[in-house]
Amino acid sequence: MSDFVITVEGLSKRYRIGRREGYRDLRETLTEPVYLILARFRSLFRRPGVQDFSALNGENTIWALRDVGFEVKKGEVVGIIGRNGAGKTTLLKILSRITEPTGGCVEIQGRVGSLLEVGTGFHPELTGRENIYLNGAILGMTRGEIRRRFDEIVTFADIEKFLDTPAKHYSTGMYMRLAFAVAAHLDTDILLVDEVLAVGDMEFQRKCLGKMSDVARQGRTVLLVSHNLSTIRALCGSGILLERGSLKAVGKIEDVVGSYLTHQSIPKSQFSDKNRRFHSDTLRIVHAATYRDGHEISQFAYGEELEIRISIYADVKYDSISVEAVIRDAYEAPIICLSSGLTFGQLFSLDTGYSCASCKVPRLPLAEGRYFLDLSVGYAGLHFLDYLECALWFEVTYCDPAGTGFPYKQAHRQGAVYVPARFQAFREVPE
Amino acid sequence: MNNSSSQSVDFPKIVIRPSGGWVSLRLGDLWAYRELLYFLVWRDIKVRYKQTVLGAAWAVIQPFFTMVVFTIFFGQLAKVPSDGLPYPVFAYCGLLPWQLFSYALTQSGNSLVANQNLITKVYFPRLVIPLAACLAGIVDFGIAFLVLLGMMIFYGITPTAAMASLPIFLLFALATALGVGLWLSAMNVRYRDVRYTIPFLTQVWLFATPIAYPSSLIPAKWRAIYGLNPMAGVVEGFRWALLGKGELPGPLVGISLAAVVVLLTGGLYYFRRMERTFADVV
Lengths: 431, 282
Description:
The structure holds two protein chains of two kinds. Chain A has eight helices and 20 strands. By secondary structure, chain A is of the alpha+beta class. Chain A has three domains: 4-64, no CATH class; 74-101 and 113-262, P-loop containing nucleotide triphosphate hydrolases (Rossmann fold), CATH 3.40.50.300; 273-412, Coagulation Factor XIII, Chain A, domain 1 (Distorted Sandwich), CATH 2.70.50. In chain A, the strands form four sheets. In chain A, strands 10, 13, 15, 16, 17, 19 and 20 form a seven-stranded mixed beta sheet that branches. A six-stranded mixed beta sheet of chain A has the order 5-6-7-3-8-9, with helices on both faces. A four-stranded antiparallel beta sheet of chain A has the order 12-11-14-18, with no helix packed on it. In chain A, β19 and β20 (383-398) form a beta hairpin. In chain A, α3 packs across α4 and α3 (128-139) crosses α5 (172-184). Chain B has one domain. β4 of chain A pairs antiparallel with β1 (13-16) of chain B, so a sheet runs across the interface.
């Protein structure tokens, strides 16, 4: 018998996206509603999926996964990485049997627990104690198992005093702690985890991370999806890189992260709803680009001027608007926040129609490497009207201000920000 | 740690591949997930009357006042016959399974949409959800049943041996609700029109069921067809089992039973067929 606990072969998943759009004549306009109703009645009985392949033309479907194959050995901790929309979550959803693949085959040996979200099925009206049992059952624990781990869960979540309080009176932090605590005590052979570490305050995140590495050391098989490359590198031994639904690399985690950072073709800019984290109906960021001295450019050297121009379309007038750009490093960890409202005390009024906002950084303090930009418009510190995650990227190609011949690089784990400093050495005898 | 690895030895291999055409019902899976079913029923019951002043009294208030209204309008004013029984008991005995049915139907019909956070995040046989929604109504039924016993004592009706068959008719009512609920819940995932159809459906169905009137009011030659409404069989069965008046209208109940078997089997297959796309379209 092979020692692989997960075998994935030719796995594909096709999603249907909205209806085909285009022009249509009056006859179509008049008859279409009738056809539509008829078609819908027919579709009541027809399962979309394998059979009606022919009915789906390429235009209104999207391959979330295409011909993905890999194997996972028992006890391996595998990180799944890739940009937004690369198919990471779809892969986990298929492995945890939430959704069916369109093609391909998966074989799994062992009991699977999936944590795609913390606190799935928590009910605000139920007490902490009741929620532990309910959530545990939903995650697949038996009553006996939950009873055995109950005290551990309560201690881990640190909520002894509020065990019999309805969860709706909990603070967000308590709620998250309890939710993670239940999930962390799930005792399955194979664990599928999606981004759940990004909850709670710093101290609790550290605790979660510790728990995760405990789990990894126990010899259980873990598949972990995360945006945080440093978490992935800390926890995982091997990795899988997905790009637009296809498998790009598989192997040792350092190699996979490396190919993610270097060889990946990333679209110049992304203004789709896929990376939109907040939106309103009346304001939209329609375009953005990086400039130097008035020229559109995406490669910079240390100390050069960086200008970000954001085109905004507004349906109504806005007052006291803050424009924000967050610079993320190659691992997509935020490093610098440029908020016109919060950090620079500048607010703008926007007329209806198109406007342009510009943000100039006179001397770019960044190390060599790639950077992503989150762009947002909103009421400073209150809420966002539009927020695009990693909407743009740019590169710093040269950073060696002192001319040492040893350029300052992100990739060498030197950090991403270069700050000028002066060193001195002098004679001092310790007492 | 040790127990988790020992569990894995005998754990069957899971194979995931696209399933085509009609598929098996895999009712065995349901058994494997019985604890989850238990917890979901338990949750629905626990949460049902949270933050209400009257609490579980609502389980009695609804059928009781409907009975009062029926007694005034149908019993007193319209002089609808009641098979020789006191009209209030007659109506209440019909409302009892009806309340269970309409609650179970409404809840299960909306259950998948209401639990979409579960469907998109965790795997388990989806049948658990509408089933749990149906079963949660039994507590209300039990409470309302006590009131019926009180009314039977008040009107001096002594139960007969037929009362032993009550669980069968109870099951019958739940099966009807589940049968319809499966169809509706699966359609509801794709077409939210269903949500608005359900209240209307139960309203019409109430009058198509012999609750305010006896089925003997229906001309004899139509009575068998009338049995296609499974709830007609359920309600007549309840009256026969509890109030012990007359004979069980056999043909009607038989046809109702057949109708429910068809409805439930069809519902199960339809549900299983649509199940695999729930997480994608809900």
